[in-house]
Every structure is written in C-alpha cells, then in structure tokens.
C-alpha cells in the first residue's frame, strides 16, 4: 500500500544520501535523516526527538506531484460519534426501539452535503466520514474534520458538538456521544518566518529542471507537527499521483528527478 505515499519518499531520500556518500567530492553541511512511521494516522512525529535531530529546519518528502512544495496544510481533528440505541424484538418494537444505526444515518444526513472531500478543493474544508459500523444497539461513525482556516476549523468542531447536543435533546440525553480530538494544525505561521527554506527548495528544483509549484496540502504531514515543535518542516513532492487509491502510482523518472532535487538541495550552497 501507498507505494508513492510514502515508500517512494523513503527510497528517494536514501538514494540521495547514497549518491552523496559515493561522491565525496560534493561538499555539503551536516545532514540528518529520520524516517517516521504512522504518519497516515497522525502519530508519525509523536516520538520524534527534535533536540537530538539538532537541525535548524528540515523537509518531509511526503507525496505530491513532481515539483510541489507545500508549507500550508489543513488543521485536522478526528471525531468518533457513538450512538446508543435500544434494541427489542422487531415484532413488538413500536414506540420502544431506538435503532442506533438509523440514528447514525440521521446524524450523517444533517451534516452539510456539499462539504465533503468529493465536493471541495483548494482551501475549502470538509467533514469526511471514514468508517461506520453498528447495529440496533450501538453504532459508531468515524470522521475527520479539516480546514485551512483555524476560525472555520473551530466552527466545524462546534457544529458537530452542537449537532450532537441537538439530537440528544430529541432522542434523550446520552443517545449521542462525540469525541473530538485535534490531530495537527496548519504549519503556515511556523514556516513564514523561515521562507528562505522554501526559496532554497524552489531553486533546487529549477536547477534540476523541475518547475516548482507552491500549493497548500489538502491533508496532513509530519512536518506540520514538527513545525509546531520548533523544527520548521515544509513538504516536498515525491512525484506520485492518485494517492490513497488503487490507482496510486509514481513514474521512475519522477523519482530520479526528486533524487536530483534532494542532492542539489543538500549541496553546500544551501
């Protein structure tokens, strides 16, 4: 799974390091490399030791079509909605049964239908239903909430909390529970004081005949968490496409170009 996002990034980083090791005539400063697991569940940087890493800035190589440089990302939260129902034999259920699965479906129907990943782009945020399970007695909905704007991000979380409160007023206190937990925040404010690292990446791409494309991430990356821990860490592309689906792919020439970009970026002029 996720060969272009992000096994490809690991391969590119190590290939660039291998190239520098086998070409000692290329001068460069101190280089530190770390591979983090569990980025896709928002836990990749949990045990990252910024002090031990001892760098002024860093880059993730974490997805994106060739040339992308990203220093803005979503504010992200995970949400679990638990619905508690009352089950009884369907033959005698009138005015007694509270079908948790049907109530969960009602919750889904009350979220803005046009504010899902399939209907949004650019800086537009969304509510994304990732998983659902349940029966008459209990149902669970797993959501992620995303928005580049912190104000709108807080509004989205408040909307979910208020919707839960409203449905409890209709079906009884404790019928709906909402667990909302922040995952990461937009790293833009942490990167903008260090825009030279964006300029350096863009220059390295141009020197490798790759057109730099500065775009916001419609997702997350470990660099967001690291930026808030004192290590400014924008993201560079791997060169892949169609991430997280069965059609995810990456051309080998894009990987080779990204190796060239990384080697150029690490040379002593940067």
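-> sequence recovered:
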């Amino acid at each position: 799974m996720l060969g272009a996002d992000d096994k490809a990034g690991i391969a590119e980083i190590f290939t660039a390091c291998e190239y520098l090791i086998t070409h000692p005539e290329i001068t460069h400063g101190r280089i530190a490399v770390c591979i983090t697991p569990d980025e896709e569940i928002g836990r990749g940087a949990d045990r990252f030791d910024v002090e031990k890493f001892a760098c002024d800035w860093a880059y993730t190589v974490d997805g994106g079509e060739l040339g992308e440089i990203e220093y803005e990302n979503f504010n992200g939260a995970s949400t679990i909605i638990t619905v508690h129902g009352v089950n009884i034999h369907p033959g005698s259920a009138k005015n007694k049964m509270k079908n948790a699965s049907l109530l969960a479906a009602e919750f889904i129907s009350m979220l803005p239908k046009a504010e899902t990943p399939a209907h949004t782009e650019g800086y537009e945020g969304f509510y994304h239903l990732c998983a659902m399970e349940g029966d008459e007695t209990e149902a669970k909905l797993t959501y992620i909430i995303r928005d580049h704007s912190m104000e709108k991000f807080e509004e989205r979380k408040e909307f979910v909390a208020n919707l839960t409160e409203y449905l409890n007023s209709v079906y009884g206190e404790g019928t709906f529970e909402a667990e909302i937990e922040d995952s990461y925040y937009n790293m833009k404010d942490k990167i903008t004081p260090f825009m030279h690292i964006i300029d350096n990446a863009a220059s390295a791409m141009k020197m490798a005949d790759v057109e730099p494309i500065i775009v916001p991430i419609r997702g997350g990356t470990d660099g967001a968490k690291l930026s808030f821990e004192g290590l400014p860490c924008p993201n560079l592309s791997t060169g892949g496409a169609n991430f997280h689906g069965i059609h995810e792919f990456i051309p080998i020439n894009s990987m080779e170009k990204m190796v060239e970009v990384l080697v150029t970026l690490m040379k002593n002029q940067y």
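The radius of gyration is 23 Å.
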